[in-house]
Design goal:
The complex is a heterodimer of chains A (240) and B (332). Chain A has 240 residues and is of the alpha/beta class. Helices cover 38% and strands 25% of the residues of chain A. Chain A has a domain of 162 residues: P-loop containing nucleotide triphosphate hydrolases (Rossmann fold), CATH 3.40.50.300. The two termini of chain A are 31 Å apart. Chain B is globular, with a radius of gyration of 20 Å. Chain B has a two-stranded antiparallel ribbon. Classes of the chains: A alpha/beta (240), B mainly alpha (332).
């Protein structure tokens, strides 16, 4: 059985259809890229899955369980972790930031601290434990964002542009993290605009345009897809 | 190192405070200190929802409910105020629940506005429900000095009682701040959506914070009314004395920090009394003008409150603190 099933997912903001009848499945242990031109609705899909706002129509099932009416914090507890495209660290130290999700699952500050330290070490952030995120570089804050999401012990992790805005060196440093996370057994869907990174990491790619799913398959397949090319380059193709 | 030094200074100040009533017979001095302690405790209790960024301007509600619960039980039913403490806390907490019901969805400024309205409604109820509250005449606590009656010949016992209350409440808020609840509140204050996405039930955290805060405030209200003997709706539910004052203390001292309320209450209580005494007699309301200026200056120039001026020192301290109590607690 697939880990995540999304059926006919639709989100309307007034007259604007941001997500239009999206249907896809994510299998356990997969690492799936979600791409599409700006404004295609990728982040909206993440917001719908993580429960930031409710879907207008459709179903979201995690391990066969309907999530539609579940509030955001319960979805997190159910196993959906996410990062935000614009990093949103709390005004507290890096360590405390990562302790927050741990404390949502276990009231012991001691256990939360151990957990946070473990995650920070895995993410190579242990030197920065006592720093305030506001004083760190974007690359570091993006890592904190991932560390915090990991501390929720997710089954499914939604990574929203964790590489965007980083310079090539930083991308090279942060890229292995995605693989490392996957190797720890977490299923990942990630949004990314950096195509090289996308193609090198993902096993399967979903392509969105104007709120709809227009293509899916291996990276090699989708790059050959006429509809995808049209969405990105605007070339005429009567089939699309 | 710094933490240790501060503990030593703290212990020293505490000892001095214990000795003050032995050397100062002046009732004015004792009264001033007692008021400071009451306001420290009240501001600290007010500050618990403020950890989560919720600004209450209606804490007089809980203060008044607790005061009425204790006074009615004692005067009408002869229940010792010491037993009344439980009722004061429970009824005030009930008040907190009522206030939080519509707030499951409304936060921020809506909470603030609702809290003001809530206190006003309670004031009207206290005035109109004569059979229970004695209307606007209020309730007098009969002067029958005895420990059981929480009534004393001199002001000294209340000096120590209020000092104890201040220490206990500040300690409680300290424990709350560095507990899971404290983390959840701080996360919610910082970014509610991100906190939810990490599994934090921010609505529940705000609710629990308000429960703590209202219950403690209710208990303080009971002690306060036995200290001043008089309970009338206009005073106990007044906006400025028990709703705005703790909020101002908290904001000026440093909202959402453990020591901000202490600093705010220690500085602002004497200033408030002083201004009321000297300026209030020249032109009524002039004291509030000065008060307002202090508030505006604080918000404009030191938005983090006075505590933030001690930032370099306090920051290191709070980082250590965040680390230590947790470990020590588990070690025990």
């Amino acid at each position: 059985m697939s880990l995540l099933e999304v059926k006919q997912l639709t989100k309307r903001f007034g007259g604007l259809v941001a997500v239009n009848k999206m249907t896809f499945e994510i299998n356990k242990g997969e690492i799936v890229g979600l791409i599409g031109p700006n404004g295609a609705g990728k982040t909206t899909v993440f917001n719908l899955i993580s429960g930031i706002f409710p879907a207008s129509e459709g179903n979201i099932l995690l391990n066969g369980r309907e999530l539609k009416r579940m509030p955001a914090h319960r979805r997190s507890l159910a196993g959906i972790g996410r990062t935000f495209q614009v990093v949103r660290p709390f005004e507290m130290t890096v360590l405390e930031n990562v302790m927050v999700p741990a404390l949502a699952r276990n009231k012991s500050t001691k256990l939360a601290r151990q957990k946070a330290e473990k995650v920070l070490e895995m993410m190579g952030l242990d030197q920065l434990s006592d720093s305030e995120p506001g004083n760190l570089t974007l690359a570091q804050r993006k890592r904190i964002e991932v560390a915090r999401a990991l501390a929720t012990d997710p089954e499914l992790l939604l990574l929203d542009e964790v590489l965007a805005g980083l310079n090539p060196t930083e991308v090279a440093e942060n890229l292995p993290i995605i693989r490392q996370v996957r190797d720890s057994g977490v299923t990942i869907i990630f949004i990314e605009h950096l195509m090289d990174a996308m193609m090198s990491v993902s096993e399967r790619v979903l392509v969105m345009d104007q709120g709809a799913l227009i293509s899916s398959g291996t990276p090699a397949e989708v790059t050959q897809d006429a509809c995808v090319i049209k969405a990105y380059l605007g070339e005429e193709d009567p089939q699309c | 190192m710094i933490t240790k030094k501060l503990y030593v200074i703290g212990a020293f100040v505490f000892l001095l405070l214990l000795l003050i009533p032995l050397f100062f017979e002046s009732t004015f001095v004792l009264h001033m200190y007692t008021l400071i302690f009451f306001y420290t405790a009240l501001t600290a209790a007010w500050n618990i929802p403020a950890f989560g960024g919720q600004l209450s301007l209606g804490h007089a509600s809980f203060f008044g409910i607790g005061a009425y619960a204790g006074a009615i039980l004692y005067v009408k039913y002869g229940v010792s105020p010491w037993i009344g403490i439980a009722a004061a806390g429970a009824f005030a907490m009930l008040g907190g629940m009522v206030l939080s019901l519509p707030l499951i969805r409304l936060k921020g400024p809506f909470f603030t506005l609702a809290s003001i309205a809530f206190a006003e409604v309670l004031r009207m109820i206290a005035i109109d429900w004569r059979s229970l509250t004695n209307g606007s005449v209020g309730i007098n606590i009969p002067f029958k000095p005895a420990l059981m009656n929480l009534t004393f010949q001199s002001g000294k016992p209340f000096y120590y009682i209020s000092l104890t209350l201040a220490v206990v409440v500040v300690y409680l808020t300290y424990r709350i701040r560095y507990s899971a609840l404290g983390f959840h509140l701080r996360a919610a204050a910082s970014d509610d959506e991100a906190a939810k996405a990490l599994g934090v039930n921010t609505s529940l955290a705000h609710f629990v914070a308000l429960m703590w805060s209202s219950a403690i405030t209710g208990v303080l209200g009971l002690f306060y009314v036995f200290y001043i003997y008089v309970l009338e709706p206009q005073t106990i539910f007044s906006l400025d004395l028990f709703s705005l004052q703790p909020a101002l203390n908290g904001i000026i001292g440093g909202m959402g920090t453990v020591w901000g309320p202490v600093i705010g209450a220690v500085l602002m209580t004497p200033l408030g009394e002083f201004l009321r005494f000297y300026l209030g007699t020249i032109q009524q309301g002039l004291n509030y003008v000065v008060y307002g200026l202090v508030l505006v200056a604080t918000v404009r120039f030191i938005p983090g409150g006075i505590v933030s001026l001690l930032a370099p020192m306090m920051k290191r301290k709070s980082a250590e603190k965040a680390a230590k109590p947790a470990i020590e607690k588990e070690a025990r």
